[in-house]
Amino acid sequence: MNGVEYGKTSSEYVRYRVGFPQVTFDRLASHQIGLTGQNILDFGAGTGTLTRGFAQRGCQVTALEPSAAHIAAARNIAEFEGLRINWVQGDPTATNMPSNYFDAVTAGQCWHLLDRPNAAREVNRVLKRGGQLAIAHFDWLNLPGSVVEATENLIEAFNPMQPKPHIVYGGGVGIYGTWTLDVAKAGFGYLETFSFDVVVPYTPEAWRGRIRATHGVTGTMSKDQTIRFDLSLKGLLELKYADQMLEIPHRVWVLVCTKE
């Protein structure tokens, strides 16, 4: 999708990318999503942060992911944690899943990568009547003078054709209003959105790993470019932040809607 080689980032995703905060699952449970025994399809599951979270809560989870490398990485973690998950490599816009089958569908960190109108229609098809879709995103916030701003400026210097992440993701504020139109046009109702902010701590080394896991770095740069970028980021962090723990502000945004 979008010319990005997602499998190249799998090892960095697993090691450094922080999954949705646990409170996300509590908030979804208050909307009757992620309850014990529910049959859930996790769209674009990536390395499985939402998938495993629901499995830990006793849900029957099918993880649908286009990248074989992501599935392999996610499966290894799930097996280590003793979780039973059905892993399926496939296209979220043409799942080959049975119609009217799932209690809920979730899409974490992936809706912006999909053919959204077709994805919304496919979700509507596979959900039971009254089933719910939850689209969730977890973004860092690019604040003036922050390490995020300095990092994104460095990405742009090395990869000028790649838009800055904070511009791509939520227009800089981590809010995705147009996605409500995607689901409304596909026949969903009872739309509700919520958001909350959290601070995620990173060591400088972990932040470098997190950035290598982005599409604008390992996903689209050559191996040589990635190495040179990483060394530049290492120098920037040593110069400006020494060995400080970095506190990175993030925003969780969620859209919940129902198949009528």
Automatic annotation (TrEMBL):
PANTHER family per record: METHYLTRANSF_11 DOMAIN-CONTAINING PROTEIN, METHYLTRANSFERASE TYPE 11 DOMAIN-CONTAINING PROTEIN
Keywords: Methyltransferase, Transferase
Organism: Sulfidibacter corallicola
GO molecular function: S-adenosylmethionine-dependent methyltransferase activity
Domain Methyltransferase type intervals: 41-135
Protein name: Class I SAM-dependent methyltransferase
Gene3D superfamilies per UniProt: Vaccinia Virus protein VP39
Family: Belongs to the methyltransferase superfamily.
Keyword Plastid part of the UniProt annotation: no
Any matching Pfam family: Methyltransf_11
InterPro entries in the cross-refs: Diverse_substrate_MTase, Methyltransf_11, SAM-dependent_MTases_sf
GO BP term, example: methylation
